[in-house]
């Protein structure tokens, strides 16, 4: 149980070396072993849209665990069917098929495989600054050089266009393109919001050549941006939608949603042992019910608009830009963000970065008004005073 402060970690992987030890959470509060409270302004890296250990999800997991933890996809499972029905019921009617996996990168891998197989074409077009995960297929769509270079050669036939640049789509999306893969708001890449015109242009570019359009909503889905799914800010509907992070309220899950037409053209075989396991599906049902019944997308929209105004009013030339949608907000600094994160942690607020100069805020959508204003005040003090 104990993980003494300062003890070296024997794990490896990004972020595992020096880290704060936390043992318990409730809503937007996270506690260390000594009982010190931290306010989570990063939703445990985008997973905690409903907060830590959301009660309804906890009850669903407990009940399902006692009944049946695992069942492979070769057996029918009522909870799995109910989850798929619940998810599809919240999406436009064109969507009718779901592939279930265990993480965001797996959801993207599936989208890439489905697109190549369904179109018989090789090329995948993603965007500069985009992030889609770290397995080799998804990593090939991810932009950041330092994440890619050590693992080259990556999967061939991936290219990147300028985000929010419709002209680039005209030249790059062609008859060899299987998939155009975009985040409606780029999260890891620095919190950049796609314009409505750009998403429309993406749909048109894909349609022009018969390519498929995928929106990666691993981070923007489940109420984060002020709609249940970020594409719902527009009338644009993609052919594929990738979901993960908050989809099951904190339990690992990934989902690749598509249309019956695309599924019918998909020739290959794809499968995941744990994908769609009863525990994750039970948690997913509870999570989706919670987001809808507690109107958390509406809350994200309201709190996000107020926060944008508030943050844009901070009098400091350290700030280059403030942007975002709903409760996915970015403050781009002229200097490095690491000292600001440390200053906030010292004040009891846990925030995350997106690249080296952007403070990324994505609090649990259930954060109390008081904690959220205290967080914004702490950010202002740390920026103005730092
Ligand atoms: C986090 C993220 C992923 C990768 O998800 P993992 O669960 O870490 O594999 C993919 N796409 C987007 C947009 C993400 O934010």
Structural class estimated from helices and strands: alpha/beta
Bound chemical compounds: pyridoxal-5'-phosphate
CATH structural fold name of the largest domain: Aspartate Aminotransferase, domain 2
What is the CATH class name of the largest domain?
Alpha Beta
Q: Specify the helix fraction band.
A: 25-40%
**Considering the protein shown, what is the CATH homologous superfamily of the largest domain?**
Type I PLP-dependent aspartate aminotransferase-like (Major domain)
List the uncertain runs.
none
Mean pLDDT, nearest integer? 96
Fraction of residues in β-strands = 15-25%
Shape: globular
State the CATH architecture of the largest domain. 3-Layer(aba) Sandwich
> Rg to the nearest angstrom?
20 Å
- What is the distance, rounded to the nearest whole angstrom, between the alpha carbons of the first and last residues? 36 Å
The strand count comes to 17
Describe this structure in a few short sentences.
This protein has 386 residues and is an alpha/beta fold. The chain is 37% helix and 18% strand. The chain is built from 13 helices and 17 strands.
Secondary structure blueprint with pairings:
Elements: E1 24-26, E2 29-31, E3 37-40, H1 43-46, H2 55-67, H3 78-89, E4 97-101, H4 104-119, E5 123-127, H5 136-141, H6 145-148, E6 158-161, H7 166-172, E7 177-182, E8 185-186, E9 192-193, H8 196-209, E10 212-216, E11 240-243, E12 254-258, H9 260-265, H10 278-293, H11 296-312, E13 319-325, E14 328-333, H12 338-346, E15 349-350, E16 352-353, E17 358-361, H13 369-385
Parallel strand pairs: 3-15, 5-6, 5-7, 7-10, 10-11
Antiparallel strand pairs: 1-2, 2-3, 4-12, 8-9, 11-12, 13-14, 14-17, 16-17
Bound molecules: pyridoxal-5'-phosphate (PLP).
